[in-house]
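Bug #77: duplicate submission created two jobs. Keeping one. Sequence:
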Amino acid sequence: MKAAVYEGPRTVTVKDVPDAKIEHPCDILVKITTPNICGSDLHMYEGRTSFETGRTLGHENLGQVVETGKAVSKVRVGDWVVLPFNIACGFCKQCEQGLTNYCLTMQPKPDMAGAAYGFAEMGPYQGGQAELLRVPYGDFNALRLGEDAAERQLDYVMLADIFPTGYHATEMAGVKPGDQTIVYGAGPVGLMAAYSAILKGAGRVWVADHQPDRLRLAEEIGAIAINTAEQDPAEVVKEATLGLGADNGCECVGYQAHDPLGHEDATLTMNGLIDSVRFTGGIGVVGVFLPEDPGGAEAQGELEAQGKVPLDFGMLWFKGQRIGTGQAPVKRYNRALRDLIAGGKAEPSFLVSHELGLDEASSAYEHFDNRDDGWTKVVLHPNGSSRSAGGSSRHTLQELRQEAKAQGIEGRSHMNKQQLKRALSR
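Kept job's structure:
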């Protein structure tokens, strides 16, 4: 089968690898139709983790079941499923408490917890940027989708990671209806956190970043954009809140946070949030921070390479703020978020800018890593093409919206890529 394989820093090759197969009676085998490239993949792509060469990348996966193990009773061949990036057993102490992000069974190191597809330090499992994927404990891990699954893959694939992860940030931050929320980072997860806060009924949501294309998307979903190249987010928020600050905030950047000039500073967003959020406010941290960063010494310093960063802890303590951290327990949220999508209440595919064949993964990684304008979220298709006919799969979301505007199509700013294509084809 074909797969996107990590060959070293900033080198991904699409090559033939051994076919994924059933290895345990509880496994299922999924033909992957729609995997995404995640911002977390870039940490590995850049050589900033211990990810091994020769492994397949990809932890945001959706597809159709083609084989089931003998012990599988719920999932059936032909089912459309989206797969949480957490690989969990369902029966260990952590899973029984709903903490599938820290499963003890699937992580082979006894002093560690948590497993994932194609991810550094989270078990030996291959990723899903490939034609086939082995899914352990398929009955537990696979979320089955409805009859609209094939048509709405771009929405449902976001349930594998970034939609539940953004939602998890708002849960840890304690976002409630009417709240004023600040999100640091307008990448895919940051936009999903802002989108989740809006779905929850937050009164005002600010999104801070210095990438104009991403800030435009934030404005299109109803958030207030703050360009950090021009303004200090903490000052903007405090000015709008009588000096008090936001009720809560979300960190959606992680240890490779950098200023508009490209200088890395792992404390940038965390200390910004401590400043931006009011006394007794909540902060949810889903941006990736690691205890070991092979590239950290050169990019930032020796302490940062060990995961140690100078946090404004005195101010955090003085303000009585609460911080929640860690990867999302996807299964805690994915059913409810799936049903919001199925009911037309949520359309997270507004993020998607590019749909490309798997054979274009190398170029896609390069563009996404460069933060090239318009490359907000990349979806790969192992069958080599978009699901939509007419050759429009290479059009960016921005290009489709411009074409819709020229044709006078109303509501274009809130249409996702699939809806725009349908409207343009009428």
